[in-house]
Amino acid sequence: MADKRNPAQTARRLSLTGWLSWATLIAMFLGNTLGFTDAVTGSAMGCGPDWPLCNGRLIPSHWTLATVIEYTHRASILFTSVFLLPLAVLALRRYGRRREVRWLVGLTLGGVVAESALGAMTVLFQNPPAVIAVHLGVAITSFVALFLLTLTIGRLDRAGGPAAVLLPLRPLAASRRLARWSWFSLVYVYVAAYIGAYVASTGFGALFEGWPLPVERWSAVGPALLVDVLHRTAALGFLVLAVWVHVLARRERRGRPDLFRASGVAVILVLVQALSGALLIWTHISTLAFLLHVTVVTGLFTTYGYMAMQVLPDPAAGMEQSPALRVVQGGRQRAGA
């Protein structure tokens, strides 16, 4: 017998697309973690100057720790792609009418392709610092886009499935002031992440022992001092920026509690980031400290990516609604009556 329940009552669980998006997100997180480990341990040449082969073979005959790390990282990207391609097809078929879904699918796919190309350049040109920095930045960008896609799919699933694709998901529009500062924060953390990635790829960070200010002199470390000071100044500026955005979001917490909570999380993450930076100095760039540092950066970028998306006008605003969508909205209104 056909299921005659109201669509607003039936679509409350994650769909196959939703579960697949979470599985892909976990796979990408693990792949990025392996990539960050690859960078901090200097294992990018673990497979020699060959790509996509490893030491001239599909499966290398001789293994070192660097080979294991690099080979596993390459395999993780392939593994993530196995999940990502069907996810992109399902997401576009199920929710492709929603503009942000199309953008996030494209950004995620483009990021993974660019990440693979940059990984090949890193090997073929033997670890150029600028390429490694861009590689790390693109990896974080891909993860954030996939996280936002996963979040959007989950909301649409709970709102009513494909019938609710044009249903407004944002409670109220944010002020232009908060919107501008949210986007500025996203750009700021993106640039700061590249500066940090460059510091990591050049090995400059290991030259310093002082925190929060460097105690080394120019005669001892040379131009590395300028890069390090720039990195620390950007981190301090970000703390001030995060607090300011939180103050702005607090003024709108009644209408947009989601933005207020996200801005509070960002302030906490900035403080944790500062402590993880100190840990990097004190441990002379240990692998665990670096992974903690870059994971917090990913969390910051994800938080401001969420805020930047949430301050945009809802794609459903002003769009004609289908009969199925009106059924879903009617069911939601009756349920709340």
Describe the structure concisely.
The chain has 337 residues and is an all-alpha fold.
Topology summary:
Blueprint: H1 7-10, H2 16-41, H3 65-95, H4 99-124, H5 129-159, H6 176-202, H7 218-221, H8 224-251, H9 257-282, H10 287-310, H11 323-336
Helix pairs in contact: 2-3, 2-5, 2-10, 3-4, 4-5, 5-6, 5-10, 6-8, 6-10, 8-9, 9-10
Characterise the protein shown here.
The protein has 337 residues and is mainly alpha-helical. It has two domains: 14-161, no CATH class; 172-317, no CATH class. It is 72% helix and 0% strand. The chain is built from eleven helices and no strands. Helix 5 crosses helix 10. The longest helix has 31 residues, at 65-95. The model is unreliable at 1-11 and 318-337 (pLDDT under 50).
